[in-house]
Structures are given as structure tokens and as C-alpha cells.
Design goal:
- With 216 residues, the chain is α+β, with helices and mostly antiparallel strands.
- The chain folds into 2 domains: 43 residues, no CATH class; 159 residues, 7,8-Dihydro-6-hydroxymethylpterin-pyrophosphokinase HPPK (Alpha-Beta Plaits, 2-Layer Sandwich), CATH 3.30.70.
- Strands 3, 4, 5, 6, 7 and 10 form a 6-stranded antiparallel β-sheet that branches.
- Helix 3 packs antiparallel against helix 4.
- The structure holds 7-(2-hydroxyethyl)-8-mercaptoguanine.
- 7-(2-hydroxyethyl)-8-mercaptoguanine binds next to strand 6 and strand 7.
Amino acid sequence: MSDLKVRPLVGTRTLRPSLRQRGEQLSPPLTVDKTCYDQQCPLMPAQVVYLSLGSNVGDREANLRGAIASLAAAGVRVRQVSSIYETEPVDYLEQGWFLNCVVEGETELPALELLQGLRGIEAAMGSKKLVAKGPRLIDMDILLYGTEIIDIAELQVPHPRMHLRRFVLAPLAEIAAELRHPSWGDSVAGLLERTADRSVVRRIDGAAGFTASEKG
Ligand code: GSY
């Protein structure tokens, strides 16, 4: 507990040390900043996160399902999974069509640790990016991390191209149409309606319906 940031703040969570349960004399309760960004802080509040998953190599559907199944061990509780969509490649066009989906999860991990966890899943599954924006067995991106805006070299959240990608917006709108972009305030449904992207995105019938165990 030596790393705790103890601050006398309004709107904070109150910690009651275990002394109280033992009936011993308590000093006044500690107040701890709920928005503690210290990577060592043991009291990171849970964040609702949205992740985009894509695969265009091998058994694409199995790759998506395998990655989703790995999220629990990486510290993400899966709350919702969109249907799977077959999508035309964007950015780098000379490659096979993707299967894409979006996951809503909950995590106490700081954003950079979450990113490292996703990269760990990709590596463990054998995904390699031989060409930038080219074919990959599995690709996982953080679209949203609560309502936070993060702009550092390693990570930009909200994902800076999410509004330009129907393969992101269509599955995201399926599970969170009214969710608002933290910077612009637009709903996901609105972004999908107004995006300039005209690439083909089609929901695959029968691929929807991840089981509870796949959600972790
Ligand atoms: O950014 C994710 C990788 N990616 C995709 C993708 O997942 N789906 C589609 N349809 N096109 C893509 N281009 C890239 S890069």
C-alpha cells in the first residue's frame, strides 16, 4: 500500500482498512483518488473498453474466437461481442477479405498494459505483420478506453481512424449504437451514418452468438 496516492479529494472512494473488520481503533478513513493513473496503483477503477478484432489469414473465425477466449487471462472481462462481419480490406487493398468483430469488455488494467496484453495475445497466436497494414492472423485494437483521451506515441484512444472504418463502426453500432465519441460527442450510430467509407461490410448469418465460455 506504500504506493497509494492519498489525497483529500471530494468525490472519492473511501477505503476502510481491514482494521475495522477486526474491531480495532480506526484512524479517519483514507480517501483515495478514483482516477489514479499510477501504473502501480492497486485501485484502478474498472473501465469499459471497446476492442476491434480482425483476421484475414487462416481460419479467420477460429482466430477471432481464440483471441476473444484469451481476453480473460489478459485481464479483460468480456461483456458483449458483436456478430462477425466479412469486410473488404481498407488501407492496403491487395489482401484477402477480413472477418471483423467488436468486443465490449471491462478491465482494471491501465490502457498501456491493456495494449501490451493484446499484443501478447497476437504474438502467442503467431500473428506477424510482414507488411504494414497487410495480412494478419489476428489484429486487436483499442477503440475506446472509458471516456479517456490518450495521445502518446504508443497509443491513441479513441482510435484515430475509427470514424473512417465501416468494419469498426458497423459491429460497434450493433452493440453500442448510442455510445458517444469522447472527443466529438457523436454517437456511434451517427458516425456510421456519416462515414465517408464505402467499403463492403456484411454481417455473417450464423456467426453471431458467442457462447458464455467464449466470453470468458
Ligand atoms: O486495422 C486493422 C487491420 N485492417 C483491417 C481490418 O481489420 N479489416 C478491414 N476490412 N480492413 C483492414 N485493413 C486493415 S490495416
